[in-house]
Amino acid sequence: MLWFLLILAVVAVLAVMSYNNLIRLRTGLDEAWFSMDVFLKKRYDLIPNLVETVKGYALHESTVLERLVNARQTAVSAKSHEAVVEGNRAVTGGIRDLLAVAEAYPELKADGRFGALQQALSEIEGEIANARLYYNGTCRKFNEGIRTFPAMLLASVLRYSDSPYWNAEENERGPVEVKF
Q1: Per-residue b/e over 25-41, b at no fewer than 16 CB within 10 Å?
Q2: What is the pTM assigned to this prediction?
Q3: I want to staple 131 with a disulfide (CB 3.0 to 4.6 A). Which of 22, 36, 96, 169 is the partner?
Q4: What is the mean pLDDT of residues 22-35?
Q5: Which domains does the chain have, with CATH numbers?
């Protein structure tokens, strides 16, 4: 009888420790996601200023501007992680298109306001890249945590499933073309 109570106590302690660890991992994952969300919002807030600045110089480039504004709206209104990722892929593509358009307008590139916005965008993109690294690291820890024994038993009861990584976009994977 004493052995049974001892085994039951050990199982209970393991269950509590596993539960607490899963909660810590889930909280860390949420923190990483919301930290990245802060930087994404900073980028969303910068886009209207970029669009307005470019609009003054590149009036006939309205489709690029409209596409970026629509992508921003989609990303801002996204409700699920997958929708946020998808919306931000469109925003990234729109920003690239906008910067490509700016290359065709030397007076725009010389505009101090555009230069400051481009510098701010570059800094935010760096922060987003760092936040993605942090998110993916916590995602890895969470996924490992819910796959290891005995926590995997409790994770299935809590209906925890693997959290998706924030992967590089297809156009970020290829070689960078450099022209002089």
Answers
A1: bbebbeebbebbeebbe
A2: 0.79
A3: 36
A4: 96
A5: 22-169 (1.20.1440.20)
